[in-house]
Amino acid sequence: MGIQLFKASFDVEACLAQVRECLEKGWTGMGFKTVEFEEAWKRYTGHKYAYYVNSNTAGLYMAVNTLKEKFGWEDGDEVISTPLTFISTNHAIVKSNLKAVFADVDDTLCLDPKSVEEHITDKTRAVIFVGFGGNTGSLAEVVKICKTHELKLILDAAHMSGTRYRDGSVPGTNGDADITVYSFQAVKNLPTGDSGMICTDDEELDQIFRKKAWLGINKDTYSRTVNKEGTYKWKYDVEYVGDKYNGNAIMAGIALAQLPLLDRDNAYRRTLAQWYTEVFAQYPNQIGLVKIPDDCVSSRHLFQIMVKDRDGLMMYLNSNEVYPGVHYVVNTDYRMYDYGRGTCPRAEFVSDHIISLPMHMGVSYEDVQYITGLVVKYVMEIKKGESYK
Ligand SMILES: *Cc1c(COP(=O)(O)O)cnc(C)c1O
Fold first, then answer.
1. Does the beta carbon of 159 sit less than 6 angstroms from any atom of ligand 1?
2. Angle at CA 211, nearest 5°, toward 208 and 213?
3. How far is CA 361 from CA 16, 74, 97, 264, 278, in A?
4. Residue whose CB lies within 8 A of the most ligand 1 atoms, among 185, 199, 302, for a mutation test
5. End residue of a domain, out of 245, 260, 275
6. Do 347 and 256 sit in the same domain of this protein?
7. Is 162 strand, coil or helix?
8. Could you tell me if the CB of 129 is within 6 A of ligand 1?
9. Is the CB of 185 under 6 A from ligand 1?
10. For residue 55, what are the contacts with CB-CB under 8 A and spacing of at least 6?
11. 222 and 35 in contact (C-beta within 8 Å)?
C-alpha cells in the first residue's frame, strides 16, 4: 500500500458508542450531539459562539455573505485573500458577488502583511486569512492592519484545529477575527466524515448563521421538539432564503469521540515534523522549509518542503511507494481566478516547487527515515545538489 499523504485514524470504539447513542435515541439530525459538540468546542478553543455546520466550505460562504448583508457591502466590493489555498476560500468570496483580490504570501506561506496593505483600496471590505498547514504566520500583523483600515477579518482555520499560540490562546479568539471557520473533513486533524464549525464572538452573527444554515427558518426542529412542553411545535417563520448547511448528530458524535485525541495527535504531528526537519535542515540550498513563528504551536496539518524539480521528486517518491501531495496549485492558475495571474510571484513560485510529505498517526520514525532518505538521494545525487531557489 505504501505510505500515503493522509490517513485518518479514529478511536473506533468511542465513535461507535457515540453513533449507537444517536441511533438508540432515534436522533441523527441537527441538535443533541451537535449542541454537545458546540459546547465542547467552545470550551476547547475559547470562542464565544460556535455553530456546527456540514462543512468549512458552507461556513466560509455564510461568513462572507452574512458580513456582506450586515454591513451593506455592494456587489463587486473586494475581499483580499491568498491564492495559495483550497478553492473553497476564494469561491466563498465570488459566490457572494464580491471580488477576490489576491495578495502574496510570505515565507510562512500565509498572507504577507505588506502585500495585504498594498492591495487595500476604497472598495476593500475584508480579508480572509488561511492558517496554512496550521501555521499562524503573520496573523497578528494582519489583525492590526484590519483594525486600522476597518476591514472585517475571516480566519479560514480549516488546517488549524488544535493550533495555539505559546501562551495557550487560540488564533481568532479575543476579537482577533470576526469569524473563524474550522473543517472536520475526512483528512483534517479532527476527522469526521464531513463537517465544520463557524465561530464568532458576535451573538447576532451566531443567531443569523443558525437561521441561514437551516433554510432561513427561525426555530430549529430540535428546540421545537425538546425545549417546549407538550406536542411537537410546528410553527415557525422564515427570515432568509437560507441553505441546508447544518451539521448532524452522527458526525458530531464522531467529533466528540475524536476531540480528546486532538492534542495528542497534533503533538505526534509536531514530532514527525521535527524528525523531517532534522534531516532536511542539513540541505538549506536544496530543500526549502516553511517558516513557523516562534510563538506558534502549529497543529501541523501539513509538512511541506520546496525543491527544484517537484514533479520529478513526486514521481521518484511514487515509484518508491511514497505518495505525497501538493498544497496548493496557486488559484490564479485556474480559469476562475486567472485575472490574478502574475500578481503573486512568491505564491506562484511556491506552487511550482512545493510538496507535502506524509503526515498522519500511521507514519513511524522508520517511515520518516525512509522518506527523508529518498528525498535527500533525489536532490543530492540524482539532481546533483541543484539549488531550489
Ligand atoms: C479543507 C479545506 C477547506 C474546505 O473544508 P471542507 O470542510 O472540506 O469544506 C477550506 N479551506 C482550506 C484551506 C481547506 O484545506
1. yes
2. 105
3. 20, 46, 40, 10, 19
4. 185
5. 260
6. no
7. coil
8. no
9. yes
10. 183, 185, 194, 195, 196, 245
11. yes
CB of 88 shorter than 6 A to ligand 1: yes
Handedness of CA 257, 262, 263, 267 (dihedral sign): positive
Structural domain boundaries, residue 60: 3-260
Three-class DSSP category at 122: coil
CA 6 – CA 60 distance, rounded (Å):
24
What's the confidence (pLDDT) of residue 202? 97
CA–CA dist 176, 119 (Å, integer)? 20
| Cell reading at 106 | 510570505
Which amino acid is located at 206 in the chain? D
Segment 33-92, tens digit of pLDDT: 999 999 999 999 999 999 999 999 999 999 999 999 999 999 999 999 999 999 999 999
* 388 within some domain: no
Q: What is the pLDDT of residues 252-273, one digit of tens each?
A: 999 999 999 999 999 999 999 9
3-state helix, strand, coil in the chain (%, to 5): 40, 15, 40
Looking at residue 169, what DSSP letter applies?
A: P
Distance between Cα 384 and ligand 1 center (Å): 37
Same domain, yes or no, for 239 and 268?
A: no
Mean pLDDT along residues 120-127: 98
**Pocket flag, ligand 1, residue 130 (CB < 6 Å):** yes
Exposed, middle or buried, 159 (CB in 10 Å: 0-12/13-18/19+)? buried
**201-224 pLDDT per residue, tens:** 999 999 999 999 999 998 766 666
CA separation, residue 20 to residues 53, 119, 222, 359 (Å): 21, 51, 19, 30
- Regarding whether 372 and 243 lie in a shared domain, the answer is no
Of 260, 280, 315, the residue at which a domain comes to its end is: 260
C-alpha cell at 1: 500500500
For 90-99, 117-126, 166-175, 223-232, which range has the lowest pLDDT when averaged over its residues?
A: 223-232
